[in-house]
């Protein structure tokens, strides 16, 4: 096959090279007392026409000659075969490039509306329950909302798994992996930082705890938004700016919110905003799938 | 050689123009009509015919909006289109494997 390509080659670069001899199908450029120089073909993917194979001046290999007639030696032959394979696996490589590009561009859309609606409903109910139960101690507040986050994460995972199984697709797909990887640092930092604050700062109030959580969660959402529908990034910004504005308002106006207000703040952000985004997705997702 | 993968190739995608459109859209979330046209060097008429064929097959979604008071047509792969293209690529992979084996 390579010999044929060489014979039909019209490449101007190759035309000036005096090819007198072939070694295992590769044109020999030069044979000296010490070296055998051969040229292999390089095939490349033309973006405007996939799988078009165009011969082009490729890699030049220089072999040291051990003694006369070494070109027939087994090691050289093996190398030729390997080189030939390397050059001729271009279809697999091209297909792999397409698959990789597809994976990278895939947007995570799995069960997003149901997850948001569920998270919003749980967040709102949890805020009401927390206010009713009067969980005002910082450690209790931390434990309560940590438990609520687990309560949201478990059914969310089950929803994603169910939808993946129904679609006969892997649960741990590349978009899922990227979203988790983007969310994880913010979740770990948020959880760890608030835990350290609760354990080391005796004067910590629940509002600071809630706002820290909200802002870091917003950062996580924004990071994950690069692999999710566009609205997620905006939601992340609403969390960050909303919490930031509340901090600025409290500090600027010297306002002290009532002790049970952190539950309502959490309820508004984790409940209300998720619920609103879930409703928005519920009415727009179907439409976008149809287009 | 088993000819089955050849027969299973999606005829809608298995055309040079449509395959390049699908490949381009598969590698990006959405692209405007002009971006596709300029990248592939197609004419407006040729591209719109291919897009319509893909749209009728349910592989490509077309959204018409306005940007700076000018109409903007954006195209993206639908879930069905992405799946069909994945199947197409897998079939090509099978054909390549078969040709290696023979």
Question: Could you characterize what this model shows?
Answer:
Chain A is an alpha+beta fold and 291 residues long. Chain A has 10 helices and 4 strands. A 4-stranded antiparallel beta sheet of chain A has the order 1-2-3-4. In chain A, a hairpin with a 3-residue loop joins strand 2 and strand 3. The longest helix of chain A is centred in the C-terminal third of the chain and has 30 residues, at 261-290. The radius of gyration of chain A is 31 Å and the shape is elongated. Chain A starts with a helix and ends with a helix. Chain B has a 3-stranded antiparallel beta sheet with strand order 1-3-2. At the A-B interface, helix 4 and helix 10 of A face helix 2, strand 2 and helix 5 of B.
Report the end-to-end length of chain B measured between terminal Cα atoms.
Answer: 7 Å
Shape of chain B: elongated
* Spatial sequence of strands, sheet with the most strands of chain B: 1-3-2
- Please count the helical segments of chain A: 10
C-alpha Rg of chain B (nearest Å): 15 Å
Could you say which overall geometry of chain A the principal axes of the C-alpha atoms support?
elongated
SSE string of chain A, helices as H and strands as E = HHEEEEHHHHHHHH
Low-confidence stretches of chain A are 1-20, 40-59, 65-71
> What oligomeric state is this?
heterodimer
Tell me the strand percentage band of chain A.
Answer: 5-15%
How would you state the average pLDDT of chain A, rounded? Answer: 73
Main sheet properties of chain B:
3 strands, antiparallel
Q: What helical percentage do the residues of chain A reach?
A: 55-70%
Q: Which chain pair shows the most residues in contact?
A: A-B, 19 and 24 residues
Going across the major beta sheet of chain A, what is the strand order? 1-2-3-4
Helix-and-strand structural type of chain A: alpha+beta
Rg of chain A, nearest Å? 31 Å
Structural category of chain B is alpha+beta
Taking the alpha carbons of the first and last residues of chain A, their distance comes to: 45 Å
Number of strand segments of chain B: 3
